[in-house]
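W.,

You were right to be curious about this one. When I first looked at the sequence I had no strong expectations either way, so I just let the prediction run and decided to look at it fresh. Below is the sequence, 175 residues in total, followed by the output.
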Amino acid sequence: MTPPEVGKDTTVHASAYGCITVPFLLLVLLTLGWGGRNQWAAGELARTGVVVPGRVIELRFVASNPAVVQQSSRGGQSRGESPVVTFTARDGKERTMIGSVNRRPAPWEVGGTVDVVYDPEDPSHADLVSEVSGWRLWFGVWCAVALLLAAVASLPIVLRRRQSHQQSDPETWLT
């Protein structure tokens, strides 16, 4: 096989596009869709929830929570902690919630006051305002990455269509 000459167009083969790009794109878009959906759900709580003060009663590691850990200069492994917070809902009942992110170092102190946002129709669905307040930024990031990948993946289709139009239109043969 000889390399293509400089300045000449190379053809895009459909089999190369379909075998590799489409399955990869589907997996990536599925992952991005999941992330966007999670950010939209956090935004739903931030948009429609009720904000009340709460008190941190405990800090604990929650294995199912994602972690945000700042590395110390001494190295070593450390696990973040989520706050366990009590708050009083509109109905007057005291409820307990656990923060959605393990953080190290923990920005909360036992006995400290934090803002809690909860769903008035389901007070068990609650989180810290600080954890759901950035949902718009992250939702935008998920969507932008998905659009960028979709644009890159569709590039071979656009190039192939352009090439077929040039070959079928006699007026573009000279250009």
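Here's what jumped out at me. Residues 49-131 form one domain. And, maybe more interesting for your project: The mean pLDDT is 78.

Coffee later to discuss?

I.
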